[in-house]
């Protein structure tokens, strides 16, 4: 079982690390660096079953940071000693209040045993395949391999993602060619303050040009445009981006639903829609609308998802023509545009 400890203090982080490493089934990593780019790189290289966040002082934008960590790693976050900080109430967040960080404290062993027992009792299915996409099975799709489709049919690719999306998007964009003849527009659920460094990391890893979308901007081939974290994003018939400051949809902003609906109405059969890992149902009905309008639609398969929510709902709605692993998504796009 893979566990990542994120600590503000080297001393306290090491104490928890040494305690958990005594368990033979625990593979424990420790990070003192709160730098977002470092965490992005960790998520690309490793899959974790739990993140243990050791709090020893005030954390700026605490709730947003927790949401970011959940989107990035796609697993439960065990929160030690944060009872005085305002944290969201979500099922993926498990607080361990009044956790003594001093190993000489009389309650340290008891609290540590509680933490270890919780981890053992809440083991998730094997996720070792999630950063090894080329070995994942084809999934539930009607097609098991990419299909040749005329490249001139398409003018844009639209992607929606939530929990677990960052590592999948990193894989896709690292493996797609920089001279892709169409633009890509993306909605990834993530707190607004974390979007810029996330984009910076992706752009450094990818041959594509990756940026935050600007209102009124004309999309260009080989470019990837991410919705900013505080606006919905839509696409017009002439390929221009429009940012909309409207209430959340499905409790999220930006919403995949906004993007997919606009793409369906503006481009119809000239678009490709891809719905990736994530909780809830954001974008599922609109992927079905894209399919009805003649677009090519893809949902990520269950085997490679961190959370099979959004793509799972889309599949139940018969919204996806293809159900693919990330590796197959890359191969399908390359095949369509003769880039294999």
Automatic annotation (TrEMBL):
Keywords assigned by UniProt, alphabetized: Chemotaxis, Hydrolase
Q: Provide GO CC annotations from the record.
A: cytoplasm
- List the CDD domains hit by this protein, alphabetically: CheB_Rec
Enzyme class, top EC level, equals hydrolase
Q: Which GO terms describe its biological process?
A: chemotaxis
Instruction: Cite a single Pfam family from the UniProt record.
Output: CheB_methylest
What EC number is given for this enzyme?
Answer: 3.1.1.61
Keyword flag Hydrolase: yes
Q: What is the lineage of its organism?
A: Bacteria, Pseudomonadati, Calditrichota, Calditrichia, Calditrichales
Superkingdom in the source lineage: Bacteria
Q: Which reaction does it catalyse?
A: [protein]-L-glutamate 5-O-methyl ester + H2O = L-glutamyl-[protein] + methanol + H(+)
Protein name (database record): protein-glutamate methylesterase
Which residues constitute the catalytic centre? 162, 189, 282
Example GO molecular function: phosphorelay response regulator activity
Q: Which residues form the CheB-type methylesterase domain?
A: 146-340
Q: Which gene carries the instructions for this protein?
A: cheB
